[in-house]
Design goal:
Helix content is 30%, strand content 18%. The protein has 315 residues and is α/β, with parallel strands linked by helices.
Length: 315
């Protein structure tokens, strides 16, 4: 049996995967929600992480546009795309950026590239992690019908919670995250990065991966982590847990009504944590320029990084 706190952690993970599917990044304002297939964009700077092809994959990577963002799905090979600051701005700090999308898609622009560009502008090297995903139907119509069925609340067979463990449930994605940290550390000198100042920020499912990487990622050892509108369930916090930044909207339809036990867990362990609960913003606000105060999460995150010394060069 797994520990009670881990059971609660996996319960929310299971709920998220069952209920949210590909639309985990729905923004709470009017944008075109039509899924339109697009060509796979050129990604000349993407580096293959070498974690291997997704086991038993039959569908190949494809992309679509939705909500003004570009989404990847059926990712079978993990990559890491660097966004490096100008030399005069570089602070030596770095961040692995994990987009969300219910482990079925990845919101590559709103929660990936746009975040990385903004961080690089602040002097922080950023690396967008395109991690391997759960397979979905290759045909767009079948994909949308499958997601609609998921949202309909149709029952599915569920394994006992005692059989679930984030380290196992997300082993593929954690392996990709570990490889990302290893690559950045390996090329730290080339990229003007301090190998001890590499953190991770994730959105929704990417926040789940960020938490799993911090708790079960073995040698990943992020220096700091940020959970942006991910689950806030109770966890067992290691004595050396990294500083944690959390941002969530009070009207988030998925994670705003499940309590804030993650914050309490970090505080009980006497580890640094900062929590921003915005009155409005819904889910998936990311880098969208909205009228709600949730848009300010990035400025707050940058100030938090500055407070911890990550916007200054290490002496």
């Amino acid at each position: 049996m797994i520990a009670p706190s881990r059971k609660r952690f996996t319960r929310l993970f299971a709920i998220a995967l069952t209920v949210l599917g590909c639309q985990l990044t729905i923004p709470a304002f009017a944008l075109d929600d039509t899924m339109t297939p697009i060509a796979i964009p050129k990604q000349p700077n993407a580096i293959t992480l070498g974690t291997g092809p997704l086991p038993n994959a039959t569908a190949q990577e494809s992309w679509h546009s939705q909500y003004g963002s570009s989404f990847a799905r059926n990712v079978t090979e993990a990559t890491l795309t660097p966004f490096l600051p100008k030399k005069r701005k570089a602070t030596g700090a770095a961040v692995i950026v994990a987009p969300g999308g219910g482990f079925r898609t990845l919101s590559m622009s709103n929660e990936g590239w746009d975040v990385a560009k903004a961080l690089a502008d602040k002097g922080v090297a950023a690396f967008v992690l395109k991690y391997r995903l759960v397979q979905t139907p290759a045909d767009m119509d079948k994909f949308q019908k499958a997601m609609a069925a998921m949202f309909s609340g149709a029952p599915r067979a569920a394994r006992p919670l005692s059989d679930q463990n984030p380290a196992e449930e997300f082993a593929v994605q954690i392996a990709d995250a570990r490889a990302a940290f290893a690559l950045v550390r390996e090329r730290a000198k080339e990229w003007r990065i301090d190998p001890d100042r590499i953190g991770m920020v994730g959105f929704s499912a990417g926040a789940m991966l960020t938490m799993s990487t911090a708790l079960y990622g073995q040698d990943a050892n992020p220096a700091f982590i940020a959970n942006i509108y991910g689950p806030l369930s109770k966890v067992e916090v290691p004595a050396d847990a990294p500083p944690l930044f959390v941002a969530l909207a009070a009207d988030d339809p998925f994670f705003a009504n499940s309590g804030y036990d993650l914050i309490d867990s970090w505080r009980a362990a006497k580890r640094p944590v900062e929590f921003h609960l915005f009155e409005q913003g819904g889910h998936g606000f990311g880098m969208y320029n909205k009228t709600t105060t949730s848009t300010g999460w990035f400025s707050s995150f940058v100030r938090w990084l500055d407070m911890h010394g990550y916007l200054q060069k290490k002496k």
